[in-house]
Amino acid sequence: MNILDQIIADKRKEIVQKKKFITEMMLRNREDFFEECASLKYSLLEDDATGIIAEFKRKSPSKGWINEKADVLDVIGDYDVYGASGVSILTDEIYFGGTLDDLVNGRLLTDGPILRKDFIIDEYQVIETKAWGADVMLLIAACLTKQQVKRLAFEAQQIGLEVLLEIHNETELDHLCDAVDMVGVNNRNLKTFEVNVETSLQLGEKIPEQFLKISESGISDVNTIHLLRQNGFKGFLMGETFMKETDPGEKFLEFVKQLKEQ
Q1: Marked catalytic residue, from 11, 43, 55, 162
Q2: Is 117 an annotated catalytic residue?
Q3: What are phi and psi of 130, to 5 degrees?
Q4: What is the pLDDT of the chain when averaged over all its residues?
Q5: Distance between alpha carbon 5 and the CA centroid of its chain, in Å?
Q6: Pairing of the two strands 136-140 and 162-167
Q7: Are 55 and 90 contacting, i.e. CB atoms less than 8 angstroms apart?
Q8: Is residue 166 annotated as part of the catalytic site, yes or no?
Q9: Which residue out of 162, 172, 216, 240 is catalytically annotated?
Q10: CB 203, CB 169: distance < 8 Å
Q11: pLDDT reading at 193 higher than 90
Q12: Residues of the domain holding 182
């Protein structure tokens, strides 16, 4: 069993336990469930957009702890103020050290779009995503069938969430459907955790024009962003570059200044 299979197995157990304590109706009655979602797609298309989706994550399966003591309240506000087109918050606890409370606290600090990154495999999690204050939901093609993507994306669309579909290879392009808003090319292979930005360049030209393209993982310098822009990418999901620093917000500001100077 590879790491992705193990994560999904643990996620199924986690969902079973959650449903015992918080029903879908309880989620639908949360205040945030009735809020209108901010659009990541529109934010990325603004003329002066940095295109950076700045990520908050404490650890990863491949690197272990990246910033164990990091607090959303110390980071997300800086991301927002210094020019992030959106923020991404990891909510998986076992493998990424996140919680749903991170979404709640993040919402306090930005009116901009928040992407919930987790391993979404059940309709319950779609409702949960909206109920805890996120605007965009990640679906990972590698752990879903085409039918599951279509069903979960449609459910998200019905309640106002935008959908980012993450792919890793050409085969996963056939997971695309009309309920998907954006396509993210993850340069990190979730089964081996090897990273290669060339993955974005190769798959980017095969993504239909109707979908906004986002490159994920392995982006650490402004030259890479310029190269990706030249190849049609509008969004750049970056986390570790900032989160490995003592002050992620300050590192993000420094990066944005470099991006604007070139």
Answers
A1: 55
A2: yes
A3: -70, -40
A4: 96
A5: 19
A6: parallel
A7: yes
A8: yes
A9: 216
A10: yes
A11: no
A12: 3-261
Euclidean distance between CA atoms 93 and 127, whole angstroms: 18
The reply to whether 55 belongs to the active site is: yes
Residue type, 207: I
Of the candidates 54, 162, 46, 41, the residue with the CA atom closest to the CA atom of residue 106 = 54
Residue 191 confidence (pLDDT): 67
217 is catalytic: yes
- Please give the helix or strand (H or E) that residue 80 lies within, else none: helix 72-81
E strands present in 30-123: 52-56, 59-60, 64-65, 86-90, 114-117
pLDDT at residue 109 in the model: 96
CA–CA distances in Å: residue 66 to residues 60, 76, 97, 143, 191: 7, 16, 10, 25, 20
Q: Count of domains in the chain?
A: 1
Candidate list 11, 41, 117, 213, residue with the active-site label: 117
Query: What is residue 197's three-state secondary structure?
Result: coil
Residue 60 annotated to the active site: no
CATH number at residue 200: 3.20.20.70
3-state secondary structure of 95: helix
- Active-site residue, 216 included: yes
Catalytic residue among 11, 41, 43, 57: 57
- Distance, in Å, from the CA atom of 36 to the CA atom of 31, rounded to the nearest integer, reads 11
pLDDT tens digit string along 58-91?
999 888 999 999 999 999 999 999 999 999 999 9
CA 194, 200, 203, 208: dihedral to nearest 10 degrees? Answer: 140
Return d(Cα 22, Cα 89) in angstroms, integer: 21
Which residue in 43, 85, 88, 186 is the catalytic one? 186
Q: Which residues lie below 8 Å from residue 151, measured CB to CB, with a gap of 6+?
A: 123
Question: Annotated catalytic, 260?
Answer: no
